Amino acid sequence: MVQHLKTLLNSNQELRPLLAKAQALSALQRHFISVAPPQLAQSSQIQVLGLHLGTLSIAVANASVAAKLRQLAPELAIMMQGKGCEVSGIRVKVQVSFDRLQPKPAPHRLSKTAQQALNDFSQSLNESPLKLALEKMAKSKN
Predict the structure, then answer these.
(1) CA atoms 131, 135, 140, 142: torsion sign
(2) Other C-beta atoms within 10 Å of 49: how many?
(3) 61 and 105 in contact (C-beta within 8 Å)?
(4) What's the confidence (pLDDT) of residue 103?
(5) pLDDT band with cut points at 50, 70 and 90 for residue 102
(6) Number of neighbours of residue 77 by Cβ within 10 angstroms
(7) Quick one: CA dihedral 11, 16, 18, 20, positive or negative?
């Protein structure tokens, strides 16, 4: 699948620059992860956003990781240069990721048989929180 996509992008002259940009960003991501402290690279979500005029822009998931990377930025830039990247500085952004809102599933409805079974079982119990909960479930319309 990936190879087919690369072939498609590479065969179209208008899309070829997009492939080159994606490959360059992927290489920068790999290089940055290789020089970043392992506990930061593994525990957080670090995403290389781009390289513009020697400044590498990075997005991280939270402020504490961003603060640590900002402290290490000069050292990391030197290490990136050692990997052949033309990085003179690193800019760190906090970009809180969020899960896409999932539609709430429709509540499950109890069948008449299930409601009757819960009611019958609750009648066989002594007064207790369990008995009250089962009676409430048996009476509910959902």
Answers:
(1) positive
(2) 15
(3) no
(4) 67
(5) low
(6) 19
(7) positive
Give the tokens for residue 138: 């048996």
Least Cα distance to 137 among 117, 128, 124 occurs for: 117
DSSP state of 102: P
The DSSP output letter for 71 is H
Q: Give the model confidence (pLDDT) of 5-33 as tens digits.
A: 778 777 778 888 888 888 899 999 999 99
Secondary structure of residue 128 in the 3-state scheme: coil
DSSP 84: T
DSSP annotation string for 31-44: HHHHHS-HHHHHHS
Cα separation, 66 vs 108, in Å, equals 43
User: Does the structure show a pLDDT above 80 at 107?
Assistant: no
For the four alpha carbons of 123, 125, 130 and 132, in that order, the dihedral sign comes to: positive
The first and second tokens of residue 122, run together, are 């609750």
pLDDT given at position 68: 92
Structure tokens at 112: 């008449």
